[in-house]
Amino acid sequence: MSNSNIFDLMVAEHNNVLDFIKAIEISNCNAINGKALEIQDYFDLINFGRLYADKHHHGKEELILFREMINHLGLVAVKIIKQGMLVEHDLGRLYLNQLEESLNSYKKTGSLQDKLKVIVNSGAWSDLLKRHIEKENTVVYTFAQRELSKETLSLIEKEFNAFEDKADVKESLLLLKNIKKKYNI
Questions:
Q1: Is 34 left (phi over 0), alpha (psi -120 to 50) or beta?
Q2: 8 A C-beta contact, residue 85 and residue 129
Q3: What per-residue confidence (pLDDT) applies to 94?
Q4: Cα separation, 103 vs 96, whole angstroms
Q5: CA–CA distances in Å: residue 65 to residues 98, 157, 160
Q6: Into which CATH architecture does domain 3-182 fall?
Q7: How far apart are CA 170 and CA 38, in angstroms?
Q8: Is the CB of residue 13 less than 8 Å from the CB of residue 57?
Q9: What gap in Å lies between CA 180 and CA 41, rounded to an integer?
């Protein structure tokens, strides 16, 4: 993996998340139009969000990329990362937790109010991630790629490779493949 491929990989992972978001938005619209809530698809979203988007993708950012940006790029990087990206990562975790709570409640009650909470929380997560991804793709990654030294980018590349070697995203990617097929994405 070359230095530019580090960022290509991160953008490709973002595209996977965006594909899942498209499916959830379709499911939300279907539910609003009176169709049954696709409960398993929302549980799949929680699983995908936690394992792929958060543990895998955000893991590389938080443990490797953001650390190096903070260590080498000064106050601007500190503000972007600590007051922006990390706050949004935590907010995404909150939305997934709230989605899980509302989904479990909906399974028990089947109430319209709980259905609304499922739609609202999945929509909040989706909206947050779309805006977050746009910022990372257009600001954070370009800033890091432009300003970090070749040596630091090489270190990040080595750590990314080691992270990827230990990662197991097959289940998440299979889940994504099935969701894309189901929703024609």
A1: left
A2: no
A3: 98
A4: 10
A5: 28, 9, 9
A6: Up-down Bundle (1.20)
A7: 23
A8: yes
A9: 11
Question: At 35, is the secondary structure helix, strand, or coil?
Answer: coil
Q: What token pair was written down for 87?
A: 């706050």
User: Do the beta carbons of residue 96 and residue 129 sit within 8 Å?
Assistant: no
Give the C-alpha separation, 35 to 140, whole Å.
39
pLDDT mean values, one per 10 residues, the chain (185 residues): 78 98 97 94 96 97 97 96 97 98 97 96 98 98 96 96 94 96 97
Main-chain phi, psi angles of 38, to 5 degrees: -80, 80
The tokens of 168 are what? 């197991």
Q: Where are the domains of the chain?
A: 3-182
Q: Which two tokens stand for residue 38?
A: 């696709």
- The single-letter DSSP state of residue 156 is H
